[in-house]
Design a protein that fits this description.
Length: 452
């Protein structure tokens, strides 16, 4: 019994998980709510953290302006064990040498305060602008992530909702297949149909059941994919005494009667022509803005490497204090050191190679921007054409929906007049449901084209 316990638990675990999914109430969801919640998921929080991390570069740029300071302190003890009484010994320290004379144990206290003012023209001119441009690039990348998450939420929302319409059609098709199978069975009993017809009807019914199962599976997958986009990061959730579990939501409840139209007020200055859309994309697309910032950074880095030819140095300023023992006369010394330390890296091969590399990086950034402008022009034109085509397809599916509705009404009248049977009406119901599914699919494609 003890050995069979893991096997029993392994058999019960899928059932318990499935039961838990069934007992959990689905979360009501609308398009606006889905798009808003997508801005709280892990990817957007990661992008925000990356942007905040980039702001540290502004503090790092201050090292080219703020002097470095140190406070070295040293206590020295010596004992002359050999030599004449008048012999001197010198103990070197960071300030030079300190003489000691006479026998016995002697010591000295050395204190100093040093300041090194940086002389770095390349860093002082370009470090802060490069840091600012880097922060701007991270902010644009964060906006790109936020935009992609909103689009992904809308796509997954429409896909999850579209499958529900397909599920209705699949359910009606299964009912129709069962009715046809029952009708064929009765005809076989009355010798009005062949056994082959019954086999075909049973195969069609089984095929409809498989299709229903496939639609249900696709619906669960689509809703899990949607839940992944809508999962709010735990960092944005107030932490209680117990840890907040990291889990996907079990499911969502959609209002199938809601049109879920994309609010065009989100898009300022919506273009009215293809040419206007292309021109607006070239000016406002985040990808172009990001590459422009990258080109600015490349130019600043090129300028930085050129300015490094001026060299790197420092202006040292030091204050020294010494106190020796009484046997040495107990002198107290206070002095100051100042001057310059400067390096002219004219023969630095690495510096010249960096200058060459920076110039090539500027050229590469210019080529990337040129290619991006061409690709964005192509993409904007394609987006406009997809929008126009989506409007035409929606109009066509609206006409097909009206045709299916008229066919259903006609079948209903024929049934009332005893000129048709209920299976004929059920067939028109399936066609009407299919037309409704196609209509909503066209509507969702139109909304995604608007959002694009």
């Amino acid at each position: 019994m003890r050995n069979s316990l893991p096997v029993i638990l392994g058999m019960l675990l899928p059932i318990l998980v499935r039961a838990e999914e069934i007992l959990v109430e689905p979360t009501p969801l609308t398009l606006a709510t889905a798009m808003a919640r997508s801005l709280e998921n892990v990817r957007t929080v990661q992008a925000n953290v990356t942007t905040r991390t980039a702001t540290v570069a502004r503090f790092e740029a201050l090292k080219h302006f703020i002097p470095m300071a140190n406070l070295p302190q040293l206590v020295v003890g010596l004992n002359n064990v050999a030599g004449r009484a008048s012999s001197n010994s010198i103990f070197p320290d960071i300030t030079g040498g300190t003489p000691f004379n006479g026998p016995g144990l002697v010591h000295a206290e050395l204190s100093r305060a040093n300041l090194f003012f940086p002389l770095d023209p390349s860093g002082q001119i370009t470090a802060l602008p490069i840091a600012v441009e880097g922060i701007r690039a991270k902010r644009i990348m964060e906006e790109l992530v936020r935009r992609s998450q909103v689009e992904l939420a809308a796509q997954n929302y429409y896909e999850s909702k579209r499958i529900l319409y397909a599920a209705e059609t699949a359910g009606l098709a299964l009912i129709l297949a069962k009715r046809i199978e029952a009708q064929i069975t009765r005809k076989i009993e009355h010798k009005q149909a062949h056994e082959l017809d019954g086999t075909q009807a049973r195969a069609d019914r089984a095929k409809a059941e498989v299709f229903v199962s496939e639609v249900e599976k696709t619906s669960r997958i689509a809703q899990r994919r949607l839940a992944l986009v809508l999962h709010a990061s735990r960092l944005l959730t107030p932490q209680e005494t117990t840890a907040v579990p990291i889990r996907l939501e079990a499911g969502y409840q959609f209002d199938l009667a809601d049109s879920d139209e994309v609010d065009l007020a989100m898009v300022h200055d919506l273009p009215t022509t293809r040419e206007e859309a292309i021109e607006m994309a070239r000016r406002k697309r985040l990808e172009v803005r990001l590459l422009v910032v990258g080109l600015n950074i490349a130019r600043l880095q090129d300028k930085r490497d050129l300015l490094r030819l001026l060299g790197v140095g420092s202006l040292p300023l030091g204050l020294s204090f010494k106190n020796t023992t009484i046997p040495n006369g107990g002198p107290v010394t206070l002095g100051m050191i100042f001057g310059t330390l400067y390096d002219l890296p004219v023969i630095d091969i690495g510096l010249w190679s960096n200058i060459r590399r920076a110039r090539l990086e500027v050229a590469r950034s210019q080529l990337d921007l040129e290619r991006a402008l061409l690709e964005i022009e192509e993409d904007a034109g394609n987006s406009w054409d997809r929008w126009e085509q989506a409007k035409l397809e929606f109009e066509q599916r609206t006409r097909e929906m009206n045709l299916a509705r008229e066919a259903r009404e006609r079948a209903g009248r024929l049934l009332e007049q005893k000129q048709a049977i209920d299976i004929d009406v059920l067939v028109t119901d399936v066609h009407l449901s299919q037309a409704r599914t196609n209509l909503w699919t066209g509507w969702f494609n139109l909304q995604l084209a608007r959002l694009d």
